Amino acid sequence: MTAAQLDNPKPNPKNNSLLHIENLQMHFPITQGIIWQKQIGSIKAVDGLNFQINRGETLGLVGESGCGKSTTGRAILQLYRPTAGHVYFENIDLTQLDAESLRQMRRRMQMIFQDPYASLNPRMTVGSIVGEPLQIHGLATGKQKQERVQSLLEVVGLNPQFINRYPHEFSGGQRQRIVIARALALNPDFIVCDEPIAALDVSIQAQVVNLMQSLQAEFGLTYLFIAHDLSIVRHISDRVAVMYLGKIVELADRVCLYENPLHPYTQALISAVPIPDPELERQRERIILTGDVP
Questions:
Q1: Can you state the angle between helices 142-155 and 126-136, rounded to 10 degrees?
Q2: Which entry of 121, 132, 152, 253 is 20 to 30 Å from 177 by CA?
C-alpha cells in the first residue's frame, strides 16, 4: 500500500472501532539442522484472534505467562509480522502496508514496555530519548524540540530540568514516566501497554495507573492494557479479554466478567486474586487447575 492509499483507504465495515483484529496468527517455526535447516513444526504463540477495540476505551488482556499476550501486542503494531490475519486501524489494513507507509502509521501507534530501564538507551539523555521520535518523523528540531520535550516531561509529572539527565539517575517509577512521555511525543491514538507496572514497586503502581488514566482522559487515548494483575486490570479496563494458549477464551465487559466468569480458566484466574480481608481470604474457594498444559 502506498502513501496515496493511506489518504484514501478502502471502504471497510469496521467503521465503529479504532482497531479491528481478524484471525490474527503468529506462528514461530521450529527448525532442525544447522546448515540446511528444515522446519519440523511451529509454535502457535497467537492462534486466530478476533476482537475489536473502540476509540477511547481500554481493553485489558490477561492470562498466564507464555499465553501470547505480549506477542499479540507486538503483532498488532507489526513489530512482528503476523503469519496470517488482518489488523485494521481505522479501515487501513496494517498487514498490507509497505515499510514507508507503516512508518507513517507508527506516529499513531506506540508502545509502553514492561521494563522501563531495558527500553531506555543508557547512553542517551532524557531529552534525546523523548525527542527522538520527533526527530525521526521530522516534526521538531532544535529549540522547538526541546520545548516539546520539556512540556511532555511536565505532563507525566517530571521536572523539565531533568532533560539532561540519564536513565540510571531515575527511580523505576520515574523511568516508566519517561517511557510514557516518549510514547506521547507523536500524539498517538493507540498505545499498547505491555505490563507497564509489572516491574514497579506496589507503592508506585497506583501512581502510574492513575497517570495513564488521566492522560487517556486528557488526550483521548485508546489502550490495549496487558497485565498479570487482575485487580489492576479491573480498575483500569472497560472490557477484559482472557487469553489461554494463544486464543481468547473469554471477552466481556469488566463488571460482567469479574462477577460472572463463564470459562473455567477465567474462573480459576479470578479465584487466585488475593482478598485484602484475612477472614474472607480464609473462607474463599480457590479453583486449582489440574493436569498438564496441552
A1: 120
A2: 253
